[in-house]
Structure formats: C-alpha cells, structure tokens
Amino acid sequence: MAERSLVEALWWGTGAGSRIARVLLAPFSALFALIVRVRNACYDRRLFPARVPRLPALSVGNFTVGGTGKTPVSSWLASQLASRGARPAIVLRGYGDDEPLVHARLTPSIPVLVNANRLEAIERAAAAGADIAVLDDAFQHRRVARVADVVLVSADVPDGAERSLPTGPYREPSSSLRRASLVIVTRKAASLPRARALVAHSIAVAPGVPTAIVHLALESVHFEARPTAPLASIAGTRVLAIAGVGNGAAFGDQLREAGATVRMRAYPDHHPFTRADAQSLARGLGPGEIALCTLKDAVKLLPLWPREAAAIGYVSQAVIIDEGGDAITAILDLAINARLRQL
Q1: How far apart are CA 293 and CA 262, in angstroms?
Q2: Of 16, 44, 257, 322, which alpha carbon lies 20 to 30 A from 282's?
Q3: Using one digit for the tens of pLDDT, what is the confidence trace for 78-124?
Q4: What pLDDT, in 10s, does the model give residues 136-172?
C-alpha cells in the first residue's frame, strides 16, 4: 500500500487518476459546500437556535477531516481542567470504536460519554457528577451552545486548494475560523516555521481570534510485557509503521525523524481492523523489522495481533505548547469561570 491512503491520494494526489476522480466528484463537493453554507447561515441568524446544555461546554474541533489531533488535545484540555479542580467529562459523537478507547488510555480518571445526542450525553455526565463537558469534535455540532470553541488546524496537511468533501478534507471553509474562540495549529512532523505560517494565515482569515501552536510529539515506545522505552530506542531500527489515522504519512515522518527506517502501511481514518488484517501485517514483517502503530490503532490491533508473531508496539504522544500558552490558559480560565458561575 502506498504511503498515503486512498482517500489521501484523492485529496492530495497529483497523478492523472487523482485529478480525474476529483473532477468526477466535484458536483458532490459543490452540493456539500452549499448545504454547509445554508446550515451555518441558519445558525448565524438563529433560525436554528443552539440549546444551552446543563453543564458549561468547551468544544474542540476543526474544519477539516482527520489528522489534526483532536483526541489527544481534547484529553489534554480535560486533564488541565481536572488539575484546576474541575470534574470534566469528555463527550463525543463517536465515529469509530477507537476514540473512546484512546480517551480511556490517555485520561483513565475522566469519564467518556459517547452519544450522537450531545445534549443527552451532557445530561448523563452531570447526573454522574461532572461539572464541565469537553466536546470532542464538535465545531460543526452547533446545536449545543458552548462557552468556547477551540479549533485545530494541522500544519502537517499539504498545501492545496480548499476543496470540500469528498474531493478534499474541508468540512467548511477556512472563513469559519471567525467563529472560533482559539485557533491551535498542531504539528507532528511539520516544522515550527510551517506552523507559524499557518498562524499568520489564520490571523489574516480571522483577525482578532487568538492563536497558539502545539507540538504533538512522539514520546515513548510501548510493547506489552516490556518496559516502556524512549523514542530514541528505535534509532537504526527497521519499522513497519501502521497508521489508520487522518494523515498517517505524518506518523511515518515522525518515526523517520527519530532515526528509524520506515516502511509505511496507511489505512483510512478509523479503519476497522480485522483479524485478517492483523495476520496479514504480522506475516508481512521482514527479518529484524518491528511493527509500530499509533495509540489510536493499537486499541484495535493489539487484541487481534497473532500471539505467535513478533509483538506489535505503539508510540505514545505528548502535547507540548510551542507558542501561545497564554491564549490556551485564557480559554481554560474562561471554562473554569463558567463552571464556577454554575456551581
């Protein structure tokens, strides 16, 4: 399989096949963009009123599909709120079985509620003792009023035309950043100057909206029944990198930066791995090659991995603030103050 998944090849590919597919799908993108504009206009004019939830809500989302780091950033923000004395719950729609499992690994003490009806999930969170809700992937879910909208923009996504789904990753245009409370540019393998360029673009598109840069850095390597190892331990190692995430290529780039020789197997975001997938991947390991995946993939792949095969590991991720820490602190203060007013 190529380093990019088929979806990523459609969005960013420069070959004839990718270009023809985008032309054929262009009418569907135009229709999608029209529906989004009409829907947003209805909310902006309050023809579709937002409902005030039982708990103050902090939304974390984006305006593109996948790869921005919503899950680790949502968990990190929830943990920051908890460290300030709040009792947060994480609420999400749940597009795949992986998301709640990843949250449970990252923040095991914080309850996770999965429900397409976010208002109902927030009610359940309140009944269970939560006093604030972190909404994972809720920028487009405008039915629920929130105290702040944190919007993530990935610096690892290639430059290109702003194409709506399905010919591109855009759920809505970048002008939608104007309704954000904070724009966080996330970077994995992308450089800090690249992230700063996107901050400048955000400021031009949405003047007055605070910005920050966060590095989603690979931190350590985990194998079952083995001690956790530093990322540097994979230097000089041959790695089969398995990624069923948005922009899986960035995961491969991060492993290369750590000194590994990487062979990539990219799958679509939220890929539902099967036992047959796991067996095929295990059989395909070369001599001396190790299999590594993201935590998002590990929660699905580890239970399926053949016991007789060489073990599969995953690489954990750290959330590191590069720039704009004061803007993030201000959003956390806003959420905490909204919680205090409701107590």
Answers
A1: 12
A2: 257
A3: 999 999 999 999 999 877 678 899 999 999 999 999 999 999 999 99
A4: 999 999 999 999 999 999 999 887 789 999 999 999 9
pLDDT tens column, 45-86: 999 999 999 999 999 999 998 789 999 999 999 999 999 999
Task: Extract the tokens encoding 84.
Answer: 């300030």
Q: Which residue has the higher pLDDT, 3 or 125?
A: 125
Q: Which own/partner pairs from 161-165 qualify as long-range (CB within 8 Å, at least 24 positions apart)?
A: 163/11, 163/22, 163/29, 164/29, 164/30, 164/32, 164/33, 164/36, 165/29, 165/32, 165/65
Dihedral Cα 188, 190, 192, 197, nearest 10 deg: -120
Q: In whole angstroms, how far apart are CA 13 and each of 2, 209, 220?
A: 11, 32, 32
Contact between 146 and 135 under an 8 Å Cβ cutoff? The reply is: yes
Specify the CATH architecture of the domain 57-215+320-342.
3-Layer(aba) Sandwich (3.40)
Q: What SS3 class is residue 60?
A: strand
Q: How far is CA 7 from the centre of its chain?
A: 16
Joined together, the tokens standing for residue 343 give: 């107590």
Q: What span, in angstroms and rounded, lies between the C-alpha atoms of 18 and 147?
A: 41
- Cα–Cα dist 167/163, whole Å: 6
Positive/negative CA dihedral, 240, 12, 36, 332: positive
What DSSP string runs through 292-318? Answer: EEEHHHHHHHGGGS-TTSPPEEEEEEE
On average, the pLDDT of the chain sits at: 94
Q: What is the pLDDT of residues 311-324, one digit of tens each?
A: 999 999 999 999 99
| pLDDT tens digit sequence for 10-35 | 998 889 999 999 999 999 999 999 99
CA 322, CA 38: separation in Å to the nearest integer?
A: 37
